[in-house]
Amino acid sequence: MTILIKNKKIPYLNLIPILVISFLLFKFIDNINLFAKSLKTFLSIISSFIWAFCIAYILSPAVNYLEKRFKLKRPISLLIVYTLVLGSIVLLITRISPKITHSISDLVKNIPDYIDKTKHWIDNSNLTLDFLDKLGINIDEKINALTGKFTTSIGEGLNIALTKAITITSSFFKAILGFIISVYILKDKEKFKYGFKRFLYATLKEETVDKIIHISREVDNIFLKYIIGKAIDSFIIGILCFIGLSILKAPFALFLSLIVGVTNMIPYFGPFIGMIPAFIITLFYNPIKALWVLIFIFALQQFDGLYLGPKILGDKVGLSPFWIILAIVVGGGTFGVIGMFLSVPVIAVLKTFLDDFISKKLSE
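The structure assignment produced for this chain is given below.
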């Protein structure tokens, strides 16, 4: 009789974990804002360590290269790498940033002149005026409306910049702290790896841990090589663009080269995104020169796509253009510019695991 009672109770006991999980999910959904706020606070607290991990992850290949290539000890390798990084940051802040800021301020000051030139060009173009009149478009009203919107946007942008100043300053100090912590992470990275592996083997099955290590190596191989390779490729393109624009005597050559170099980080769409501002800005100064700038940047991007990019990156992602474009569209629509860049290696990782899973199932 006792056994029967116990057997009847067992199914109900099995429902307890399901009920507990359902209750926790309900409380989570019911207090989603509170959980989101708590998560944001937690991430803000550990943001310095996130910065440290990212910096150490990016600089680790350079440290490894110096140790293997020149047989240097870890402290000396760290000293060389961090000296070069700090020197680059100082050069950026003291030499390059003021010139870029000056170019942006000149560009903003000249916007009214650009608008007047546009009006003058339209007024002198009878064909354009007749065409716009037939469409029922009042060009003066449109230009004035755009000017008003632009002025409002600048005002709002300045207000946002002022309100975000404290946040940016706080993030800056967290990044500096992360930069310092990254030194200790790289110094003892083998100890961290060993300790993490011990923890995994102590808490999980050996087969599961082997899969985790395999997945980590695949992710590292795709992400690190793609990000560093793309950064080197974009840096070279930015320098070549600056040299070419300087020879063409294009206005704001450094600023435009920075735009081209940064947007080049985005596959497929990036080159066109960087080409358009360079062409439009130069167009107000000299239409003929703007055409030459357009041709030069287009030729530069073709050189990058056909020769330089494959030489540096190789086939790091192994994706067809369809999947790359899909990843960029989805990533950009979800997470903005960062999503456009990181979506490609993410899709590459998912595709690798999916191919392994399909191959395993087919072999079974």
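Interim note for the steering committee: DSSP finds 14 helices and no strands in the chain. Residues 1-9 have pLDDT under 50 and may be disordered.
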